[in-house]
Amino acid sequence: MSDNLQSAYQEEQHKLDSVLQEIGTQLARLRAVPVYTGHDFTEQVLEAGREERRQRLIKSEPEPYFGRMDFEEEGRAAPAPLYIGKTGLDGRDPASLPIVVDWRAPVASLFYSFTGGEERVEYEAPEGLIGGAVHLKRNIMVRRSELERVVDTYTRGGEEPAVSDEFLLYRLGENKDNRLRDIVSTIQAEQDRIIRAEKNTALIIQGVAGSGKTTVALHRLAFLLYQYKEQVSAEKMIIFAPNGMFLDYISGVLPELGVGDIQQRTFTDWAVKQLDAESMLADPAETLDFWFGRSAGEAPGDDAPGRFKGSDLFRGMLDAAAAALESSGAPDLEFSPWEGKVLPYETILHWYADEYRHYSAAGRKERVLARIHRWIEMELKPVKPETLRKEFKKKAAQREKAYAKKWPDFSPLTLYKQMFGAAKDARGILPQEKLAGIPAAVLKSTRKDLKENRLREEDLPALLYLHLLLNGIEGSERFDHIVIDEAQDFSPLQVTVLDRFVRGHSFTILGDLSQGIHAYKGVQAWEEMSGLFGTGETSYHALTRSYRSTMEIIGFANTILAGGVANAIEAVPVFRSGNPVRLIDFGLEAEAGDAEAAGAAAASAAAKALRALWGREHKTVSLLTRTQSQARALHAALQPEFPELNLIDGSMTQYEGGLSVLPLHLSKGLEFDAVVVADAGASRYGDSEWDAKMLYVGCTRALHELWVLHGGATPAFLDASGEWSVPGWPDGEA
Ligand SMILES: Nc1ncnc2c1ncn2[C@@H]1O[C@H](COP(=O)(O)OP(=O)(O)OP(=O)(O)O)[C@@H](O)[C@H]1O
Q1: Name one GO cellular component term (predicted).
Q2: Residues with CB under 6 A from ligand 1
Q3: What 3 state SS string does 638-689 have?
Q4: Where are the domains of the chain?
Q5: ipTM of this predicted complex?
């Protein structure tokens, strides 16, 4: 250890001792106050505040801070050290500077935005821009209240160049378990800009695989809750992610950041609840099996049901259908509660079409019917004698009921069925010529589904959209912020619908077009989404550095993009080197000749790869297949030797980590220390962009080690990967 480092270490040890002592003192004082359990409201509020402080102190004790920055504010005589932690820690004297600054505080942004070269820096405080100079930036690792590591990433006037990546590389080199983790100590400047971006914009983030999109989105939520305390609440924020297992995988980050209660859902789960249509939904696995089970090279086109039903063209049809139903909403009838008394159709129409025009169709119907009811009561009042009034009243009640039935029910499902010719009752004037654009195959399959009362995932956005058009939305149903992860798999219509469910277009929309493997429903360009918002309502950010994988893995994955995906953005690796990727030919092609022998060869190669990789230094190892049925077959073949092997399918809501076998599409968003692609042969993956994207997703799940097995030739887009890979088994094994 150099002298400088030794003295820095001693200095930090000293500081840590004093901070821990302060935490201990504050905790002891709070614990000395008896917990209030009575009914006095003021006392209850005070007790809640004390409990919150107790919990914060307990949480910060093992790791009170992770960084230090010595900042000389302009106008001040000397730099002051700022310690930055996951939660702030105030001194007992309210006038003193905080002992630890919360990472989300404005001044802490300097810690992330400062990269070493800037003479003068500034940050945005509530009182305006504050400028000054940085003298020291230091990473400090404390674990279980012990000082473990001190790394200076910048010293003003220092002889050594800034080594800002050393600490980051140390963190990235660690093995991962079954949970995504927070990155507060190593957030990079480009990520920090996104985390701290203005609340009321739809942020669209294109980030290469492993660029930290999911992680950044979660940190952004924690930031918004801190920065806009008065305007947002955790219960009014929601994260949409692709499946239950992925939600489980990310579920630890927010509590780690001290944030609870944020809803984390799949769009499908949320939408069926909104529509109260749980029982009608077909098993989503059917759709996945259909698309991913197709043979190599057959990419879905724009007429795929999901693409069409999420398109602008279809949205236009939904608008037209809803407008037609709405304008013909009031039945073309006068209302007569008893003989001789008539409420003319013109009056009813005037109420419906003019007086209540600001309400949704269903709201107008409700108001018109309530007004008719009041009109009946008024008209009844002067009727004499009493017996006649009673008779009229009874008659009016019957007629009122019968009349109400003549109104449409403004149910989105009924209208949707009418659009597809699947409803018994074709009430409502539908502009049939406008529906002519529905592709014949989509019309046929959807009509069949709807006649059998079955909905597919791709129907849900359209139904919700109709619901919004016909029934409107209550202010209380709106979210303060929505995060859409893996947004390349969302359709423009889904985002349009969600935009109605959020205040001020407050979105974080993140994804990677190169990972758009659900091409049968997702977008192909971000303009499909940004075009949904007005000027100034949206901003676009690109993340190109990848933090997950070694240089070799990223180099290999980049060649897949270069050879197989048009206009893809290649990832820039952080300088972390590992083993070259292994490309291992096990000889027999999957689909050719003897399928059984080919399956056995693939399983035996997979077993050999797992023997080499599992149980050594890696905590998570996965075997990735193209389809669920291949995963099932490999699981059956390998389980006798690897009883701990988990077979993962789309219905799972927990992610165990360890050793797993799963189809590529379910591995999206996850990461593993080592990945074995089970069979990347040309008979499994064609030369289409879709196939290239699938393999790209699979390969970029690996942190440290990637082995790609294949039976026979590989797809052409792997031809140039030789720079980053070596052929065959290690040590020349056959
Ligand atoms: N600034 C950082 N410091 C340390 N680790 C980071 C940083 N940014 C990202 N990572 C790590 O990189 C990995 C990838 O992050 P994450 O899963 O959020 O990326 P992603 O862009 O959502 O990936 P993908 O699109 O491939 O699913 C995680 O292990 C995360 O902890």
Answers
A1: cytosol
A2: 168, 171-172, 181, 183, 186-188, 191, 207, 209-215, 512, 515, 547-548, 669, 671, 700
A3: HCCCCCCCEECCCCCCCCCCCEEEEEHHHHCCCCEEEEEECCCCCCCCCCCH
A4: 3-191, 192-289+479-546, 333-405, 551-732
A5: 0.99
